[in-house]
Structures
1.
Amino acid sequence: MAEREQAKPLAPAAFQIRSDEDENMPAPAKSHRRNCIKCCGCITAIFLILATTIVVLVLTVFQVEDPVIRMNNVSVQRLEFANGTLRADVNVTLVADVSVKNPNSATFKFNNGTTTVYCGGMVVGEANTPPGKAKARRTLHMNVTVDLIPSKLLAVPGLMSDVLSVGKLNVSSNTVIGGKVRILQIVKKYIVVRVNCTMTYNFASQAIQGGHCKPHLSI
């Protein structure tokens, strides 16, 4: 009978395990401790959100893309001949419609640029491109006028014979524009864009044929 009435040991309860510090801690101190834990958790969550936001901005908004410069249309003016040769007293004018496309989410501000025209590998004209601003995700158009010096054109070997026999003038140009993109006053990147173009002027149609441009970028 004694064996049947023998008491069974009680299972340990998790809630009964408390430290003396918790037992002796007053109620206001316990509340303060819980508030500190909650505050730390909120601060950690805020830091994680900020870190995620910064990573997204760096990969999207803060990513600076290359501006694109194109020479859309070119016309030649005052190309005059006398006695089977180019008139040396009248400058030949080359007018180009140049566009600057800015794919970034901030304005691309550029300084004065230069456009150099070559014929037969020799420099025959040079001009400055005006400064400007290409707004975010917009395209800016501007006219660039270059005076071609007749004496330099006549100095190109075989130029007049090709012009008189074929009726075409092959020229190339190099445009250099430097500027910067600044995003939220935080990210600032300096960019130099170079565009090399080759084209052929047809005297019969008085139009440019076969224009081809190739951009180059320096950061």
2.
Amino acid sequence: MDIKSLKNYLYWLYCQFELITCSYLMEPWEKLLFYTFNITMLVMVLYTAYIFVPVHISTAFQFFLHLLGNQHENTVSLVK
């Protein structure tokens, strides 16, 4: 794929985005607010996923290991 066709494809995607969101009807200042809000929400969702998803996966993994009967290595068993 050459540069010109890639540029045309990206422009086509941008036009599709504007048609889907009806942002082509907005004035420039409205577009700025709309895009700023959407980008802010996207960044917040990605940050939240980056922070919390690994914690939940680790917790679920430990839960399923506990269900299967495996013990943690740091648990101390009392032997009399």
